[in-house]
Each structure stands twice: as structure tokens, then as C-alpha cells.
Amino acid sequence: MGFGGGGSAGMTAHVHNNVPLQGGPLDFANDTIASLNAGSTTFSDGAALQELVIGNAADTLVVNGAGTAPEWGAPAGGAWVSEGNDINTVKGATLDVTVSDADVYQVLYNVADGGDESTPSLTMRLNDETGANYDMIKLFGYSAGADGDNPTGKTKWLLSASGSEDSYNGCAYVYKADPNFVTAAKGGATLYSQTQQTSATTSLYCLNVCGTNATITGAITKITLKVMKANTEDDSQIVGSMRVNSLSYS
């Protein structure tokens, strides 16, 4: 005997719940009972309905690799990953971001010196390494002309020229040493940065700096911004913010 009870009519629309068989359209909203997990959705595999259990927070619904069914995946993003930021709303000794192992770091900064050093410069250190191992070429231009120098054997990279009560904003790229290079002389962490420096007493500067530290051949773990006197270890103070993003080639 068919579902129609032997007659020509088929079974009327019904719901699967505790209410007796009833006619009318099938109502899913707060009516149909199913053995699904909270937050699940359903899809058809062409033969029957299947359950897709809810994904993780911020996941997006995507098509699987075979192109046959939906699945949850991480939201699409760019190559850069945020490593974090540091902010000094009042004068402090440093700005620091501890970073995960990556191939390239993008350091964005908008800072000022604390005004307690007559000729401060914005500087960078890696991994709290304070040996005289930072070499760089520093080129800068301003309204009156241009200048450059080749400071070597420093305990930090200079990201700016010396000034007085200056502010600095810019972007630096720090590159991890590549173990595939043939010789150690071609290794070490390297730097390229561009900084705009605004002084209370002189013209606006725009600086380009490239540098290397051949002793840092492994992972970069920490990036520090600090205001110091250019040719000494005299510390100043720093206020403002920095953010670090990273990417890896693989």
C-alpha cells in the first residue's frame, strides 16, 4: 500500500515533530525537528541532505577543493600578518614588538623624541642585540641640499639624522638572513627604511637608510625603536606608536 492509503492522492505535506500529521506547507522555522548540532546548516550531496557543522569564529563559507560541497574556511587575507604594536602615550625608553619567525617585517612608525637629548636620532635594534655590528648607508635630503654618510660598527641602525625635538614617521623593511646564500658575508639581517623627520628648528628631512647586521643569521624575535644620540650610547626617550607586520615566502 502506498503512502496515499491506497487512494490516488499522495501524502499531504507534513512536519516531523510532536504534532500529529497535518496538511499545509512544510514549515522549517521553529517547527521541524532534526538531529543537528546547534548552528549547523544543511546541503545536498545529490542524494540526501548532509549536515555541515558550524565552523570557527570569523570563518567563511567556501566551496571545497573538489568543487562538490560547501565547507568552512579561514577568511581570505593578504600576505601580511599583523605581529602587533606598541604605543607610548607618555615618554618611555623604547617601543618594542616581539615577533614570530618570518622572512620579512614591515615596521610602521609615527613617533617623536622626548626632548631630553640635544641631538637625538631615531634608531632600531633587533633581538636586543647591542654589539657594534650594525652597518648602514644613510642618505637624506632637505630643502638646502643633500647629504649622506656611511656609519659602520654601531650598536644600532640609525633611521634618521640627528635633530632637536624632532618627530619621525615612516616605514622600514627588515629582512631575515637567508641560509641559502653561499657565504656568510651575504647573510645576516638587513634593513631598508624611509623616514620623514620634522624638526622644531630646521627643515623637513626625508631619509633613506639601508643596513645590515651580519651577526643576526637566525630568526628575528624582537624589533625595538629607540631614540639615541647618533654617535654615542646616550639614551633619549620616545613617544608615539609602532606596528609590525610580517610575511614569509613559503
How are the elements arranged and paired?
Elements lengths: L40 E4 L4 E4 L7 E4 L6 E4 L7 E12 L2 E4 L5 E10 L6 E7 L8 E8 L2 E5 L7 E2 L8 E9 L13 E10 L6 E9 L8 E8 L8 E10 L3
Antiparallel strand pairs: 1-2, 3-4, 5-16, 6-15, 7-12, 7-16, 8-11, 8-15, 9-10, 9-14, 12-13, 13-14
| Corresponding CATH architecture of the largest domain | Sandwich
Structural class: mainly beta
The helix content, as a percent range, equals: under 10%
Overall residue-averaged pLDDT value = 82
Strand tally: 16
Q: How many domain modules?
A: 2
Shape descriptor reads elongated
Question: How many alpha or pi helices?
Answer: 0
* Chain oligomer state: single chain
Major sheet: 8 strands, antiparallel
CATH class bucket of the largest domain: Mainly Beta
Could you tell me how far the N terminus lies from the C terminus, measured between alpha carbons in angstroms? 64 Å
The arrangement of helices and strands along the chain is EEEEEEEEEEEEEEEE
Instruction: Please indicate the percent range of residues in DSSP E strands (runs of 2 or more).
Output: 35-45%
CA gyration radius, whole angstroms: 31 Å
- Write down the CATH topology of the largest domain: Jelly Rolls
Largest sheet strand order = 5-16-7-12-13-14-9-10
